[in-house]
Specification:
alpha+beta; Butyryl-Coa Dehydrogenase, subunit A, domain 1; Butyryl-CoA Dehydrogenase, subunit A, domain 2; Butyryl-CoA Dehydrogenase, subunit A, domain 3; 3 domains; 4-stranded antiparallel beta sheet
């Protein structure tokens, strides 16, 4: 019989990570869950609560210590996000969008850019936003129309960005623009743009179906003059930087999905034990048991895949296929679980008296932003087939 060697595979949570999880859990229970419905109805941006999240250390988690951040790993951050998303995906998206806006700087910025802009996020509770999507360019990043020209010792930026999370509250933006649209991805560059520059303005605020606590706006650039040091990386590396950013950020979407799945599971289980039909709790009906069991399976699988994707990031292995799998699976299962949660609650689930109708509206966006579930499948299939 062969001896089994010691294995490096380890799924244990460290004491430090458990502390992070508990901090996020306590904050969510006290600050987010009780008011999530209120902010969903009003569509108001929760400035004061997010400021307290910043003070608690739940914002800008992955900014390195040398720039004032906590220097947490992607896996640490995902564990925090699961807890926040359990309370409200809109709140979680607002916090995650700050990290998304800063990722291009973290990945490709100069030392001076990192000190200035990452440091700014850690010095005060302000927001950043990532400006990629446009009215006619969502999934097709290479098809953006926002134009940049180099004129002497400055760049001139013109264009319109749409569906920008934190767009109306951001202190600065990371912006994708093209020197020549005909060159597709080869003509794209990435810039840091301060929100108070002349020519920068915020357009309409979207009236969204779900995640209404997050701020989503158009951001407009009209003859905005940028210094040469606003460029991140090289003039032709913006598309590559955008793809690296998404590979780094998609585990966060999976973490949000994981938190939402767990909320669906716990709400459904609690309701099934108290709601009676035909003289017994509905939890005794096998049809209900199967739906709850599927939620439990989805939670375990989505969480493991999220953690694997985050672990790959932390190992310096930006594997697009793993991040795409985590996002696609997590988002699709979250939607499935939310629909089933509403079904378990029956007529009550279709009202605002219980949180599952909000869960269903909120999780739908997970299948759309930062690359739709269909785009994730294209990414996955392309990588598999390109090696054959």
């Amino acid at each position: 019989m062969l001896a089994c060697p010691a294995m490096a595979f380890d799924l244990s949570i460290t004491e430090e990570q458990q502390g992070l999880i508990q901090t996020a859990k306590d904050f969510t229970k006290k600050e987010i869950t009780p008011v999530a419905g209120k902010f969903d109805k009003s569509g108001e941006f929760p400035h004061a609560i997010l400021k307290r999240a910043w003070e608690t250390g739940l914002m800008n988690c992955e900014v390195p210590e040398e720039y004032g951040g906590l220097g947490l790993s992607c896996l640490d951050h995902c564990m925090i996000q699961e807890e926040v998303a359990y309370g409200c995906l809109g709140f979680n998206t607002s916090l995650a969008a700050n990290a998304l806006g800063s990722l291009p700087v973290l990945i490709g910025g100069t030392e001076a850019q990192k000190k200035k802009y990452l440091g700014r996020l850690c010095d005060e509770p302000i927001f950043a936003a990532y400006c990629c999507s446009e009215p006619d360019a969502g999934s097709d990043v290479a098809g953006i129309s926002t134009k940049v020209e180099k004129v002497g010792d400055k760049y001139i930026l013109n264009g319109q960005k749409r569906w920008i999370t934190n767009g109306g509250v951001a202190n600065w933006y990371t912006v994708l623009a093209t020197f020549d649209k005909s060159k597709r991805h080869k003509g794209i560059a990435m810039f840091i743009v301060d929100a108070d520059l002349a020519g920068v303005s915020v357009g309409r605020k979207e009236d969204k179906m779900g995640q209404r606590a997050s701020n989503t706006c158009d951001v407009l650039f009209e003859n905005v003059e940028l210094p040469l040091d606003a460029l991140i990386g090289q003039e032709n590396t913006g598309f590559k930087l955008a793809m690296q950013t998404f590979d780094r950020s998609r585990p966060w979407i999976a973490a949000g999905a994981t938190g939402a799945i767990r909320r669906c599971l716990e709400e459904s289980a609690a309701y099934a034990l108290e709601r009676k039909t035909f003289g017994v709790p509905i939890a005794q009906h096998q049809a209900i048991q199967f739906m709850i069991a599927e939620m439990a399976i989805a939670y375990e699988a989505a969480r493991l895949l999220c953690h694997k994707a985050a672990w790959c990031v932390d190992q310096g292995e930006l594997k697009g296929i793993i991040s795409a799998c985590a996002k696609a699976y997590g988002a699709d299962k979250a939607m499935e679980c939310a629909v089933n949660a509403v079904q378990i609650f029956g007529g009550y689930g279709y009202t605002t008296e219980y949180p599952v109708e909000k869960l269903m509206r909120d999780v739908k966006l997970l299948q759309i932003y930062e690359g739709t579930s269909q785009i994730q499948r294209i990414v996955i299939a392309k990588e598999i087939l390109s090696g054959r």
